[in-house]
Design a protein that fits this description.
The complex is a heterodimer of chains A (280) and B (162).
Chain A: E1 7-10, H1 14-24, E2 28-31, H2 37-42, E3 50-53, E4 63-66, E5 69-73, H3 78-82, H4 85-90, H5 92-97, H6 104-107, H7 112-118, H8 124-132, E6 135-140, E7 143-148, H9 149-152, E8 153-155, E9 158-159, E10 166-173, E11 179-186, E12 196-205, E13 208-217, E14 224-225, H10 227-234, H11 238-243, H12 257-276
Chain B: E1 5-12, E2 15-22, H1 27-34, E3 53-56, E4 59-62, E5 75-77, H2 79-84, H3 89-97, H4 107-120, H5 127-133, H6 145-159
Parallel strand pairs in B: 1-5
Antiparallel strand pairs in B: 1-2, 3-4, 3-5
Helix pairs in contact in B: 3-6
Classes of the chains: A alpha+beta (280), B alpha+beta (162).
Chain lengths: 280, 162
């Protein structure tokens, strides 16, 4: 199908984008990578009156280590993040997740901030952010504020973003020698949205691990942490962690709830091994 | 055309193009309908099938997930351009020799994606890497084996300087 008619304008600065958003409110949508937005426009699942193209705003695509954090600009493309030395060195969980996001042609356009703001419950990056305990920087008419990942993903495609706000950057803790990460997902075709996926972090503690954070995706309205399983896995007992999984997925077009629950256990076993085995 | 038309100026296959386009016109529709470059195909129109794959500023993109107005100032290359320049001539020959196409609907996108991989990798990519790179391009005829064979053989030939 073809999109319903809309007007199009380019925002050249952050201020211009936010001002336009405040003026047009729900009638406008921000156009970043467009890899989800334009698909929904083509299918007429969405019919905004105005698209505000933010691709020309300078300074929003940086990737840098800043002290104890890695900062990724909202307009950094997936392909850019995938090839970034800063990411492979200091944000290994994100490096593991990148190849699973769409396909090369999608990753050339799709943006990090767009994926976070869209908050698809089966997408990789929201779950990574949740597992990493990252934070999202958003800009609105009154300036910038930060939101913790734990408070950002509120419901199905629903985030803590207010109607006139946009994501400007994401910050995650930089990995150190005690950081452990794990990632796995099951999809019908490489690059498709996951049937179930899992992003995880932990810290090496003595011979075991501590501070386990397990963020599943594709199993609910948002990425979901499973705190009972996290506690169980911190004892090193993988069977206990799998038994403690208290996910409540719904049936969807890809799989039944029962299958998803089973697959979540399979993924947990795979990811637990990654967390428990020290990186070479 | 609706009230939301904009003037764009871009390069398509090396030729300067100036057109007035509707804001909602996707890149692939612009190429096909306005420029009569019908080599890029329209399949699913939501980024799943890869039939509309073209190059914008040297990177492969989904022609259905970019708007023509976003290509103002850009350098766009379609299968017509890749074919005329001879850049994918060896891939085209290998696809033909190995029956890597039947209906041919996916072929322009498949060639652009395969060429992207071969341009990007210094060594001969593994069959697994080839499969992964073309995972976003559906082919409903071949079962992919012949396509992977064709891409692999070209990668090997190019590595030998052939």
């Amino acid at each position: 199908m073809k999109p319903a008619p809309f007007a199009y304008t380019k925002a050249r600065t952050l201020k211009e984008a936010v001002t336009l958003l405040a003026k047009h409110k729900d009638d406008a949508r921000l156009l970043a990578g467009g890899q989800s937005l334009i698909a929904t426009l083509n299918m007429r699942l969405s019919a905004p009156e105005l698209l505000i193209d933010i691709n020309g705003i300078k300074g929003l695509d940086g990737i840098a280590k800043k002290g104890k954090f890695v900062e990724i600009g909202a307009l950094a493309r997936h392909a850019q993040v995938e090839r970034s030395d800063v990411i492979s060195r200091h944000a290994p969980l994100i490096a593991l997740a990148m190849p699973h996001i769409g396909h090369p042609a999608i990753r050339n356009r799709g943006t990090f901030g767009g994926s976070i703001a869209f908050a698809d419950p089966a997408a990789e990056l929201p779950a990574c952010l949740l597992a990493l305990g990252g934070e999202i920087e958003v800009a609105g008419p009154k300036g910038k504020r930060k939101v913790k990942a734990d408070a950002f993903f509120k419901g199905l495609f629903e985030t803590a973003l207010r109607p006139q706000e946009m994501v400007t950057a994401v910050r995650v803790p930089a990995a150190d020698k005690n950081t452990r990460v794990g990632f796995a997902e099951l999809a019908r075709r490489h690059g498709d949205y996951a049937i179930v996926g899992l992003a995880a972090t932990a810290r090496a503690a003595g011979k075991g691990i501590a501070d386990v954070r397990l963020a599943f995706f594709g199993v609910g309205a948002t990425p979901v942490r499973t705190k009972k399983a996290e506690t169980a896995l911190a004892t090193g007992n993988i069977d206990a962690a799998v038994n403690a999984l208290d996910l409540e997925p719904h049936d969807d077009v890809q799989a039944t709830a029962k299958v998803k629950k089973h697959l979540a256990g399979v993924l947990l076993r795979r990811v637990a091994k990654q967390l428990l085995e020290a990186r070479p | 055309m609706s009230d939301h038309a904009l003037d764009i100026s871009l390069t398509v296959n090396g030729e300067r193009v100036q057109e007035r386009v509707d804001a909602r016109r996707t890149l692939v529709d612009f190429l096909r309908e306005d420029l009569s470059l019908t080599g890029s195909h329209v399949g699913c129109e939501h980024g799943v099938c890869g039939a509309c794959t073209v190059r914008v500023n040297g990177e492969i993109v989904r022609g259905c997930l970019m708007l023509a107005v976003q290509c103002d100032g850009a350098k766009v290359e379609t299968i017509e351009g890749l074919s005329d320049s001879g850049e994918v001539a060896d891939l085209q020959a290998a696809f033909e020799q190995r029956n890597a196409l039947q209906c041919g609907y996916c072929t322009p996108g498949m060639l652009a994606t395969a060429q992207d991989l071969l341009k990007r990798t210094k060594n001969v990519p593994s069959r697994e890497e080839i499969r992964e790179h073309i995972s976003g391009n559906y082919c409903r005829c071949t079962g992919y084996h012949a396509i992977v064979d064709a891409v692999e053989s070209v990668a090997q030939a190019r590595a030998k300087g052939g």
